[in-house]
Amino acid sequence: MSLQKRSPILQTTKKIPELIMEYFSKASETKAQNKPIAWITVFTPVELLRALDIYPIAPEHFGAMCSARGFILDFLEEAERNGYSQNLCSYSRCTLGYALSGMNGLMPSPDFLVTFRNSCDVYVKWWQSLHNHLGIPLFLGETPYVLTLEDLNNYVLDYVVKQLEQLITITEEKFGLKFDMERLVNIVKLSDKASELWLETLKLRRAKPCPLGGRDSASDIFPLVVMQGTEEAVKFYEELLREAKDKVAKNEGIIENEKFRLLFDGIWLWYAFDLIKYFEDRGAVFVYEPYSEAWACRLDPSKPLESIARKILTMGLNVSIDLRIERFLKSIKEYEIDGAVLFSNRSCKSWSGPQLVTAEALSRKFNVPYLLFEADMADPRQYAEAQIKNRIDAFLEVLEER
Amino acid sequence: MITPSDMQDLYKNPVAVLRRYKDSEVKVIGYTCSYVPEELIIAAKLQPYRVSNIGASTSALTPSFVCPFASATLENILKLEDFVSGIVVAHTCDPMWRLYDILQKKVDKPLFLLRVPHNTDSELSLDFFRMELIRFKEFLEENFGEKIDGKDLLSSIELCNKTRNLLKNIYMLNSGGKYKINAFERFQLTLASMWMPKTEFNAQIKTLSLNNNENYGNVRLHVNGTAIYDLNLIKVIEESGGFVASDDLCTGSRYFWSNVEKLNDPILALAHRYLRRTPCPSNGPLEQRLEYIEFMVKEFKAQGVVTFAERFCDPILYDSVHIRNMLSKNGIPITVIDYENPTQEIGRIKNRLEAFIESIGG
Hints:
The structure holds 2 protein chains of 2 kinds.
Chain A: H1 16-32, E1 37-40, H2 46-51, E2 55-57, H3 59-68, H4 73-81, H5 90-100, E3 112-117, H6 122-134, E4 138-142, H7 155-175, H8 181-203, H9 214-220, H10 222-226, H11 231-249, E5 260-265, H12 274-280, E6 284-288, H13 290-294, H14 304-313, H15 321-334, E7 339-345, H16 349-352, H17 355-366, E8 370-375, H18 385-401
Parallel strand pairs in A: 1-2, 1-3, 3-4, 5-6, 5-7, 7-8
Helix pairs in contact in A: 3-5, 4-5, 5-6, 7-14, 8-11, 15-17
Chain B: H1 4-9, H2 15-23, E1 28-31, H3 38-43, E2 47-50, H4 68-79, E3 86-91, H5 94-106, E4 111-115, H6 123-144, H7 150-172, H8 183-195, H9 198-207, E5 219-224, H10 232-239, E6 242-248, H11 253-256, H12 266-276, H13 286-299, E7 304-310, H14 314-329, E8 334-339, H15 342-360
Parallel strand pairs in B: 1-2, 1-3, 3-4, 5-6, 5-7, 7-8
Helix pairs in contact in B: 4-5, 6-12, 7-8, 7-9, 8-9, 10-15, 13-14
């Protein structure tokens, strides 16, 4: 198989590191001003915290960043020295190691711990553990598994809305803050706009050749992780959409000679980003990832709390397997996918658990070949590079022969 | 009729009792977790049966890094599908939650997921859980045709309370430093109560003369973990010079510790009992878990704690850090033993236990 010339990333994507640094420097300013900082899990109502003037930081993002920049090992090892098993989620080990080693990095220490169990049940244990070590207030919310769409209008929704109201009351009491509904409505509008723009951008990946690859989508989600409800996030996605549209108009793909269009199921391997390039160099481009899409959710500013409740309820992994498979199968058609790469992530048992039955559905319905490989999203010690690349080669050969 | 000695042997082959149910056309609901209220199943004129991991190896449908207990339980449900009329899974930890996903694609029998809120101390969670139990009641009524009336529910609550009392009375025999009943025998009975008709169990247990078989050591230990069905893990402690004085297991004290109170709304009473019982390792608050363990250690005069951690069991692996910190403040030693297949690893486990028990002074 001949190798292609180096594939670039979009100009807009290159702005992400700067946005991240700004985000953390604002966090430090907030800390210096003695304003409260919350450590949150990623599908927590950021919009609500913003409206309460609480600065949200997502340790999951911090873990991904530490892994991508090659300094996660110190934190992982610190957690392990304190008794946390290597078999536990690497994001959580990173946060715990960071918390136990004095919190002297980019991420300021928290005043409040907020989580809603939705992506995984590990959130509960991880946030409980932080609470136990740091001795600061914990809000542990529950977003029950969405079994059918009826849950988005019945007692399940009601339960989550009431917990959001409770979060407002508790935060007001604990930090002497005042919740402002008008402010929330504006934040919800901005958050919705960013989601709308991102979804529109993702749709452009249906074009052949695909204007935006996996290395872009993996970075471009950042503003939707913790910056929802900000002008900066909207501005970023406007720019990104413009650039992607422009590429489509010029019939320009992110890689030069697009041969295979792939789906990626899982969280990216942050320390091995060049793996995406490995595919791209061989003419294979990632055009759809449930992970990228999961960050976007349309919100109705006329019903802010209900919208936020639905958003945190329906995040990708918290809806029934039938709904997840349906979305998966739809994407195969919409994005004209030739093959699927499924990352069996040792850290994410919630995601990886039912991956085999999903893959079965995929090959049964569409006869789409898939590659399933095992590694960890953030812990580089679990990565067998040569073996994985060998399997990728074999997989691409299969696609070539079809 | 299950005789007392059959009852004690049930743990060796719990499937035998399923065959009896099938022959006598008793409809069985297989369930996976101690958060599932058996009271509702019994009130629907159905027989609850706790599905264990006994007799199954891990399933090829789950990744290798998922808790082997959940994986083997999945395998057992698939194997035993012909023997049950319906299956109930409780959402406690990630593997159990995803086990439900996989079952949805693999079984034809009516399947129910009981969503257990992880923040068990919240009033909002109690209201939600009450609604979940109403949904569970409706699931049973719609699929198995028996309307559950208030009277039936009250009598099944009474029946299950009685079973819990009987088990707790046995458990309490060892309190305050006494060596009255060894754990192997005690666990045999607790497990039997999850597989047998409760009426039979309650009657049989009274006829049983409980003999302490004296095959144990004298170092008093508390056992911490999730669900243990393989009683070799208990036996090996006793053979290594230990005496299991107390436990906090889903197949032990967590199963019977508290009762359902008499309230005007029996569903609310059930919600209250099941949500507010001592939390399992997957749930919160962590402080309540730690308090429960601390209480058990003091009440039963345990000299050390043995944590059995299924490999890849997230809740136990997180908790063990906090349990260790709590115990060290009280000067109580702990050993965390992780394992995947007790039968294959029993030598290593015994070795660890012997060293631990010796260090305490056994």
